[in-house]
Fold this protein.
Amino acid sequence: MPKALPLFLAFPLALFAGAALAKPDAYVTGKIEADDFQGIYQAPGGADPKVEIWIGADRASRRQAGTTVILRLDQKRLYRIDSARRIYVAQELQNRGSLWEPVPKKKDVMTLDAEAQEMMRPHFTLVSSAPEMRKIGSWQAKRYEGKLESQLESFRTRLIWWLAPEVKIDDRAYRQLLLVETPALAPLLENPGFPVLCESFAQQPGYEVKSSLAIQKIETREPPADVYDPPAGYRLVELLEFQTLPSGNPE
C-alpha cells in the first residue's frame, strides 16, 4: 500500500485543484474566555468573545475582538486588519520547506544579534499526548499538553489543546495560518484533528493567567465575497505603525 503524503507536503497540491473540485469553505465559530483581559481581547465598544474562522483550500481568515488575520497562499501574503483604526498591514510570505513565514523587512525588524534572537525565540515541547478522550462541544477530542517557552523567564506558557479527528474539513490552510503566527507549534499541529478547544496558561510570578478558545459550531458555506480581503476604505500601513498603539507605545 503506498504511503500517504505528509500533511504539509500534500498541501501545495490543493493549490492546483480545478474549479470542478472546489467545495464550500468551512465556517467555524467559537468563543474566547480569559481570566484577565488587559485589553488583549477588548473589542471596540466592549469585550466581544466571538471568534469567526473561514477556511478555504488556499486561504483562511480569523476574526476576533476587532482584529482579523487573513492568510492568502495564492498571493503569498498575510494580512492583519485593525477595524477600530481602519488600517491593515500586508506581509509577504516565503516558503521554507513545509512552512510559510513572513519575509522580514529591515525597517520592520529590530537589530538583534544571533544570541539575543535565540533567547527570544519560543520553543514548544509536547509534554503528553495522553489517550484521554473527552467530548468537547459536539466532538470527541484527544488531549495534548505542552509548553511554549523561550530562554527569557518572562515567557512561559502551558498549553492544553483538544484535537477532534472526527471533524471532516480540510483545515490545512488554517493550520498554516497558526504556524505563520507561531512556528513553534509545528510539533503539536502535526497531530490529526481540528483544535476544538485551545487553553493557554501564561505563567506569572505566583499565578497563571488562563485564556481559551472553544469552538461551538463547524459548518460549510459559500464565503462572502470579501471575507479573504482587506475591507475597502482601510488604509495600508507599515508593520511598525500597525503594532504601535494610539498612545504611541508598541503593542
About this structure: DSSP finds five helices and 16 strands in the chain.
